[in-house]
Amino acid sequence: MDLGLDDDLLPANKYCPLCGVVLLCEELEDDPETRRPWYAEVRGVAKENFSDIFMTGVGFMSARETLCAPLDEELDYLTADDEALYDVDLLQAESERHGFGLHDSCWMLLQDRLWHTIDSDKIAHSLYNQFYCTPCPYRSSLSFGHDYGGAKQWQRALDDMGMPEDMPPLLQADPYAIPLLEKLEENAPDVDGRREYPPAYNTTSTDINTGYRNSFGRLSSELFYEVVSYLSVPELLDLRCTSQELSQRVVFSSLPQSFWKSQFARGSSMDFLFPDLEQPRDWFRLYRGTLSILQAKDPSPEQLSLLNRKRIRELLEPIASVVEADSGRSKEPRGRRANCMELRPGQWFVSEGLNQWRAENIYTGYLTLETEYLPHGCHVPRYRIGAFPQSMPRGGEMKISTVQLGARVFISGISLQEGAVGYGGLTGLVTIKVPPRAIFNQIEVAFCPEGLRAIRFHFGGNTTSDWVGDTLDTDMSYGVLRIPHSPCAKYHIFAGTDAHKITAIGTIHNESREERASKPFWLDYPLDLTLPDSYLWQSERPSYDNLRIYQFQTETVGTPYRPLMNIDFGGSNGEWLDSLLSMEVHVSSEFSPILGMAFNYTDKTLRFGECTSDKKLTFSIDGPGGERITDVVGSTISNTDASCIYGFRVTTNWNREIEFQPHDPFDGTCSPTGVSLNSCYLEDLPQEHIITGFVATQRYGQRYFKELGIQIQLPNGSDEGQSA
Length: 724
What we know:
This protein is an alpha+beta fold. The chain is globular, with a radius of gyration of 31 Å.
């Protein structure tokens, strides 16, 4: 059973992961004589007995969370006997027979895109793995990082009506109810000669010869047509505008059939029709006939179906590309098998066989310990270790494999010389040039809750590779892994993967012990949780060398993925404190009140988190007069999930203090009803330090602060700063 599933959740409407339109649940007569609307005809990518994955036949939604369909792919609800119809629980991975629903029309479009060359069982396996490792808020709609071509705004997870009355007709149009290709050819408008040719103008032979001295003008007709065959029609229109001579030479009706056929090939503007490119036909007429319907001012059922088909075709491409890659690659990640466990925050136990390895640090996008309706993208990964060189005297190349899942790009594998972890052979491959005499110092990473989004390497001499992957998406976090050095000039990269991408990455020393050793590595070499690089950060990482982090809830048992919010109100060495006038804490509900903080200065205001709440607590600080925050005490609520920050008390060097806690509306106290608060004190702080900020974590999908801590900066030249 998947961790984090909420069995008490009300059944939500289900949406097709290929097009984003509802899998409509409607009453079905006992003996249906006609087919249901296309958005009510549903297949399932099903898994039975926790092992067998297959594509069901065409069925219908007997309830919001249940697909009733024949298990034979060739049958449908009209032709199958009642005894041949079975229930498939959608988005309920704990069920013995469960899966993901998609429209039959969308399934046929996917097969058209794959040219019917891949066995349906292989397609089903790939789809199941893609869908299973994709977030699914409310067990309703898979979140691929896009808006489903506009369909997402019409998704109503918990509404009574699965199909909103005001949903655009385009989204309701059957993508398979399009005219036959022959009908499109017949209805093609005639070529308008006046539109084909520009107005006549007087030229001299000198003008013409000058125009034809350009590179295009010197080409023969055969070569010219070969060049323009790589252009789209809009690009060809732009080319015609570059000169009068080219506007005369580029005549659409004179272009060869090969040009117009290329407009229907994969990746071109008309590829959503999926015609047989080997079949002879008048491709120019087919293009004109299709375009005339698409551009008609008065919408028709044919136009809406074509437009919806075009929308779905664009959404299919990343999914289809992964299906193609899956059909020809190894499903086993590269590297040596390993096991991993985070015993306490920052205490990683990594083992391989009977040996344990010394971990430097590990970052992960793993969220399954949170109480989510479905695990948010990352599932129990497969762990691998690979050995990598610390330096490359002659330079070389590093290969980074990527995979596009929906609108997001993830890192799927890393390889250098003989070392490799993760997957290869997916949808992308990027080469990093390693300069001669390079020494690997750090690995900089960008994460989101579903896994590793981007990576780059830092070499000696302040040389850095380019980023590979996406770094600027929403819900991103950033961190740096130090590469440990050893006498044998090797270190290890540790990677956890799901079916397609890296979901955890760390660096491992070239140092091992027997697993039964009297003392594990994490006790001898605990991760210093005061160092900023021990954490992932929600925004740009702090760059102050003398910065240290102290948190109130160091023993909190939560998810490995909890990036810190950088609430920096002091600046480098506290240079902003001289102009600090006040701080505000924005609060909301009684049990999880802190939403954000704002700091007002003589010349600016800085805001962190959500600072739009009507409820806020303000504390004036005379920064210009020398007043500074010198102590912070936290208040937490203990519960079964983990302790949650409720409030905190700030004290200044002028012995002024304020409690940032909302008052109970019933008795005016600072304690939530029926719950006792625990005071948390920060211990072992360096004697000389300046409080210059806070850090906070947020529970995924929620606005409130879950954990809280402070940022301090050490004086330059202090023993603590030098030892770090």
